Amino acid sequence: MIATFTPLEWLLLAVAACAVGLSKSGMPAFGPIPAALFAAVLPARASTGAVLGLLLVGDLIAVRMYHAHADWGILRRLMPSVVVGVLLGVLVLWFADDATVRRIIGAILVLLVVLRVALLARERRQSAEPRPLPAGLAHVFGPLGGFTTMIANAAGPVMSLYFVASRLPVQAVLGTAAWFFLIVNAFKVPFSVGLGLMTPESLLLNLLLVPALLIGALIGWRVARRISPVWFERIVLVLTLASGLFLLLRP
């Protein structure tokens, strides 16, 4: 299949790999973009496994950059419910068609943006000092993150919303997300291999695209060091909404 790619398809895959680097090094809301671009070039199910291989490379880079900034308390609260979401995603991949899965994810992302905007509006009305999300919401975001990452590698916006809304500093958001996705994506590998989504050919494609990923990682690292928390959250919200609408409206 690799030998049959057109120049345009290689360009789309390179942009997708660059977006993986961006999402892992400084702009996690870019997470859904690789899934969308890979699905435009490869069959939908095959694209899921191909993206996962690149994400693992990006996860290692992200952990190397931000390993010291993780909030392990949040990670411990999230992980049990994330496992439930991943297992649910395995079942959906086994039975549901691509169009159904895509629309489920799109609806979840749009709903999360609406929820976060509503929470921000409430904070402005009730207090000048924003409050973090209740710890119990980990049991909502955990399954959502596990589900969306298993069926489409699209949990970046979901978990970014949770980390940002938890009022973590930007560096802590990036460090917590780095460890979260390294652990969860590694957990997904046996299921992806068992479903036939990760193959030797997909790993070869990953190897060819690593240079583009590294370029994106460098760009993301430089941007993340300069962006303010306010603009960071705005970018997360806008890209999450755009990703959700794209998945909902895509024919």
UniProtKB/TrEMBL annotation:
Q: What is this protein called?
A: Probable membrane transporter protein
For whether the record's keyword set contains Cell membrane, the answer is: yes
Membrane topology per the entry is:
Multi-pass membrane protein
Pfam families under this entry? TauE
Superkingdom as given in the UniProt entry: Bacteria
Q: Where are the transmembrane segments?
A: 49-66, 78-96, 102-121, 133-152, 172-191, 203-224, 230-249
Tagged with keyword S-adenosyl-L-methionine: no
Keywords from UniProt, A to Z, are:
Cell membrane, Membrane, Transmembrane, Transmembrane helix, Transport
Question: Where is this chain's protein located in or outside the cell?
Answer: Cell membrane
- A GO-annotated cellular component: plasma membrane
What InterPro entries does the record tag this protein with? TM_pro_TauE-like (IPR002781), TSUP (IPR052017)
Fetch the PANTHER family from UniProt: MEMBRANE TRANSPORTER PROTEIN YDHB-RELATED, TRANSMEMBRANE PROTEIN YFCA
> What family is reported?
Belongs to the 4-toluene sulfonate uptake permease (TSUP) (TC 2.A.102) family.
